[in-house]
Amino acid sequence: KLFLFDKSHKGNTSTMKHLSHSGYPPFSIKDSVFFRDGVRRIDFVLSYVDDKDGERKQERRKVYEANLEKVGLELEIEDKSESEDGKTSFVKIHAPWEVLATYADVLKIKVPFKVNDIPDNSEMPMNWLSTPFRLPEHIMHPEPDFFTAPFNKSKSDFFLIDNKDTFFPPSTRNRIVRTTMTCFPAVTSCWKHCWVARIINVSIIYMYFVCMQSRYWKRSRDANCESERFSLYKHWAGFLSFFKEQPLNLVRKYYGEKIGIYFAWLGFYTEMLLFAAIVGTICFIYGFLTYDDNEWSKEICSEAVGGKIVMCPLCDKKCGYWKLNSTCNSSWQSHLFDNVGTVFFAIFMGIWVTLFLEFWKRRQARLEYEWDLVDFEEEQQQLQLRPEYETKCTNRKMNRITQEMEPYLPITSKCARTCLSGATVLFWISLIIACIIGVIAYRLAVYAAFASIMKDSPTTHLQVVGPFITPQLATSVTASCINFVIIMILNLMYERVAVWITDMEIPKTHLEYENKLTVKMFLFQFVNYYSSCFYVAFFKGKFVGYPGDYAYMFGSKLRNEECDPGGCLIELTTQLVIVMTGKQVWGNIQEALVPWLMNWWGSRKARSHPESLYSRWEQDHDLQGFGQLGLFYEYLEMVIQFGFITLFVASFPLAPLMALINNIIEVRVDAWKLTTQFRRPVAAKAHSIGAWQEILNGMAVLSVVTNAFIVAFTSDMIPRLVYMYAYQPEGEMNMKGYINNSLSVFNISAIPPANKPEDGENPFWFNSSITTCRYRDYRYPPGHEKEYSHTMQFWHILAAKLAFIIIMEHVVFLVKFFVAWMIPDVPSDVRARVKRERYLVQEYLHNYEVEKLKVQLSQNTHDECSCAPMIYPSLPKHEVLSECL
C-alpha cells in the first residue's frame, strides 16, 4: 500500500526513477495530483461504490470509460482495495494536449497572442495610501497582461505557447474536461446525451470532482505542482487579512470566472457600504448630539406636561388609563433615529444605491475585459440541454439554431406545469401572510397582558431593569423574536418546495433553471423577511379609530394596535435590528459551522491514518460538495441584506454599519469554507451576476418609495414641521406645545362599556375627578359641532406628507437618472482596449495568413523548380530558372 502501483507498474524502473528525481519519497505519490507516473496531471476524478446491482452498473461503467478513452482522455483506476474506506473506487482522468486543444477550439476559449502594448494609466496620484491594503505583486498579478483571441487548433503557432502543460490555467482545464465528459456521443441509443449527468442520476457513478492542488495549510512538496490553494488560504481566507484586497485574479484562475465574479461583486459591495456606514453613523451621532434639543421629549417626560396628561386605554378591559410620561424613555430613544438627519440619510441612500449599481457596471465591464469575457455569450450555455429535460421530454422537433432534432415540452404541458407552480408559490406566500397575521394577533393579545402586568412599572414593578421596559417594547421584542423563528422555519421548508416545483417545470437549460429558481426564492424570501417590517412601517397605528369607535382586526375582539406617542419608528427599528441581525448571525454560523462539523464527522476514521496513506483524491472526496446552486444561496443572502439596508434604512441609519461588519466577516467565511471545507467546484464562466442585477435595480427603485413613505407616515417628522411652521402659537419657531397639540381629547363618560377597563386595572392615581383622556390623533374635542371628526390640521398634515413623498421621489429619481446618465457603463480606457484588441486580432491574423501563404508558395515554387531540368532538358540552367519564375 506504500507504493500503490498496479500490476502494470510494478517494477517499472522509469517511474521509480522519475519519482526519485522529483524531490519527494515514492510513498507520497498518494499526496500528489499526478498519475502514478508522476507526469500526467489529474484533471478530474470519478468515484463510485459497488452495491447489490453492481454487475449491471459495472458493465455500464466499462462502456462509459471506453467512450472516455475514445475521445482521447486518459484514465487511471484506483481500486477500492487501495482506498481508505475499502469501499470507494476512483477513476482519475487526464486530458492530454490534443484533447485540450480540440475542445478549446470548440469552446472558443480566449488565449494570449501578444503582450498588451497599451500604457496602463490607471495608477492613482496618491496610490501610496492604499499600500497597506494591497497584497504582494506576485499574488495579485502573477503574469503579464496579454491581448487574447479565440483559440484555433490549426493556428496553434499563432499563440504564445511556452509550455503546453501550463498553457491552460487549472480552471480552464477542468472546464474543458467537464465539457468533454458530458458532450461526446455514445454508441448505444439509450445513452445518447450528457453521459456523466445521467449516470450520476442513476447512481452508477457516485460523485465527480476536481482535485485540489495541495493541502491548504502548507505548500505542496512536489515542485511541479502549484500551491495556489495554499496561497488563497494564506492571503484570502484568513480573517487577519480582512483589511486586504482580494486576489481576484488568483480566485478566477483557480475556481473560474463564475465564482470570481461573485467575490468581486461582494468585495465591491462591501467597499461601497463603507461610505453608507460612515454617513449613517454621522446621522446617528447627530441624533445623539441633539439629544438635549429634543423639546417634545422634554414635554413628555416633565411632570408639568406629560405627568398631567392622562391617556386613554390602549386595549379593551385589560388596559387602564396611563400617564404620558410613562413613555419618556421610548421617546428619547426614538429621537436617535427620528430626526432631521433621517430625511437627509434617506435621500443620500437613494443616491448611494444608484452610484453603487452604476459603479458596479463599470467594475464589471473592466473584469469582463481583463478576464476575456467581452464576447462571452450565454447562448453557449443555452444550447446545452439539461439531462433531466432530455430524459423527461419524449417529443422531438427541429432546433433552428443547431438544425438537429431535440426533445421539447408541449405547450399544454408547459402551461399546466407553470400554473401548478404559480399556485404553489401563491399558497406559500399566503401561508407567510397567515403567519404574519398570527404574529399580529399575538401582539394584540399579549399587549393586554403586558399592559396589565406593567401598569405601574414606573413606580412599583420591574425595578431591576428600571422603567425602560414598556408594554409596547416588551410586545415588540417578543413578537419580533417569534417572527424571526417563523421566518427561519418557513425558509427551510420553502427551499425544498422551490427546488421541487422548479424541477417539476422541467426547465430546458441550466441558465433557465437558475433564473426560475431565483425568481421563486427571491419572491418568497422578500415576503418572508420584509412583510413584518412592512406591517410595522405602513399599517400599524394607521387604522385604529378613536375611543368609542375603535377598529378591530377582522371583526374579532382584538383591537388594532396603536403607535407609541413617540411614533412607530422605534418599533420598526426594533423589528429591523432583530430580523436583520438574527439572519446574519445565524447565516454565518450555519455557513461556517455546519460544513466543518460534517467534514469532521465524515473524516473521523481517516484521522488515525498517516498523511501518506490518505490520498489527495480521498481527502477531496470526503469534503462537502459545493453544489450547482452553491453561489445561488450566497447571492440570495446578500440581496436580502441589500433590501434591509435600502428599503427600511430611514428607520435605522446604523443598518449599513451592521451590514459592513457582517460582510467583512462574510467575505472571509465564504473564502475559508470554499478553500478548506468544500470540494473544488467545476469551473464555469459568467460575465455578470445574472438575474440578480435586475433584482437589485428593482429594489433600488422600490427603496426610494418605501423610505419616502417611512419618513412621511411612520416618522413624526412631517407633523412636527407643520406644527412649527403653521401652528406654533405666537409665531415662535420652536416645538413648545407640540405634544399637547398632537393629542386629541375624549370624554371618559362616552367610552362604551366594552372598551372600559375592568375593576382593578386602573392605576392607583386614577379617580373620578378625571373626566377626559387623550389619544393620538387630530380630532375635534367633545362639544364641538364637528365632534370627533378630523380637524383641518389633520388634512394639512396629510397634504404635507403627500407633497413630501412626491417631492422626495422626484428629486431622488431625477438625481438617480442624471447620475446614471453621467456615468458610462463601460470605462473609456476599457472601450479603447477592446477596440485595440479586436484590431490587432484582425491585423495579426491577416499577417499570419499572408506569411503562411508566402511559405506555401515558396515551397510550391521550390518543388516546381526542382522538376524543371527534367521538363526542359535542352535549355541552359539560367533559362530553366527563368521558366520556373
From TrEMBL:
Pfam families: Anoct_dimer (PF16178), Anoctamin (PF04547). Residues 251-837 form the Anoctamin transmembrane domain. Keywords: Cell membrane, Glycoprotein, Membrane, Transmembrane, Transmembrane helix. It is found in: Cell membrane; Membrane. Its main location: membrane. Residues 34-248 form the Anoctamin dimerisation domain. One of its GO terms (molecular function) is chloride channel activity. It is a multi-pass membrane protein. GO terms for cellular component: plasma membrane. The chain crosses the membrane at residues 195-211, 262-289, 340-360, 425-453, 473-494, 642-665, 695-714, 802-823. PANTHER family: ANOCTAMIN, ANOCTAMIN-5. Belongs to the anoctamin family. This is Anoctamin. The lineage of its organism: Eukaryota, Metazoa, Chordata, Craniata, Vertebrata.
